[in-house]
Design goal:
The chain has one domain: Double Stranded RNA Binding Domain, CATH 3.30.160. Helices cover 47% and strands 25% of the residues. The protein has four helices and four strands. Strands 3-2-1-4 form a four-stranded antiparallel β-sheet, sandwiched between helices. A hairpin with a 2-residue loop joins strand 1 and strand 2. The mean pLDDT is 80.
């Protein structure tokens, strides 16, 4: 996971014809018919989560924004990242993509 709290590490994976985009740090996920659609939906969901934490649920904002996914979810992300980097050397498959979301850019 990212050491920078303002950069969220995310990934998208194609399953059964749909792209599932996930942000393990906030345990958020979306789906779409294309990578771009799933990523855009995830960005909107992250923005909504951050804005709500900072405006509606101010007294819990530190806990909500500093929240970490359960260990099993973080490990699953790391295993996928390692497996993907290994597979990328031997295959041109593009059914998993990793990307970073700068949290401050999403909200502004």
């Amino acid at each position: 996971m990212s050491n920078n709290p303002f950069v969220l590490r995310c990934y998208a994976e194609k399953k059964d014809g749909l792209w599932i985009a996930a942000c393990p740090q906030f345990t958020l996920a979306t789906q779409g018919e294309s990578f771009e659609q799933a990523k855009e939906k995830l960005e909107a969901q992250i923005k909504s989560y951050i804005v709500e934490a900072l405006t509606v649920d101010k007294e819990h904002a530190v806990e909500l924004l500093g929240r970490r996914a359960p260990l099993s979810t973080r490990l699953q992300y790391e295993v996928k990242a390692v497996a993907y980097s290994f597979m990328r050397r031997f295959s041109r498959r593009r059914d998993v993509r990793f990307f970073s979301e700068p949290a401050l850019q999403i909200v502004c």
